[in-house]
Structure formats: C-alpha cells, structure tokens
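Sequence in, structure out.
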Amino acid sequence: MSDDLRAKILNGTYPPGRPLPHSGLLAIEYDASSSTISHALATLKTEQLVIRHAAEGMIVQPPPTVVDLVLHGPHGHGPPVPNAVNAPAPKGR
C-alpha cells in the first residue's frame, strides 16, 4: 500500500501541499486494517513524502531534490549520500 501511495504522490495524484485522504477512507479504499494504514503512512513520513499536521492530517511534501539528498541524506537527516565530491580519497599507492 505504501508503494501505491508513494506512486500517487510522485505522479501528482496527491499533489504537494494537499492532504492525503483520511486514514478511514484509505482503509476502505485499500481494504486494509488501521495498523496497516498507520504503517504505510509512517513509511511515507520517514521518506519525507508527507508530514503530519494536527488539523489537516498527512500533508504531501514536495519530493526531495538531488541537492537535498546530497546535503541531508535520503531521509533528510544524517550524513550526506556519498558521491565523487565528498568520498574519501583512496588509500595506498
């Protein structure tokens, strides 16, 4: 289910700045339990595709840019993603 929601976010079905359908509606649409819905939404939140807003529910975020990924890693925190610019120099010869 998180794969399908992710695809809908990335293809614009659920555009940035808009809320996802309420978890009750998602449960009906996917014929899924509330724990399955919670797990899928937690996955999308970890991927920074949505954020929880107290009054509006889960709000779709713009997908991360390459710069975001390089500077902040794939989940928005922690070390940068290794690349040719910040990779350690080879040791030896």
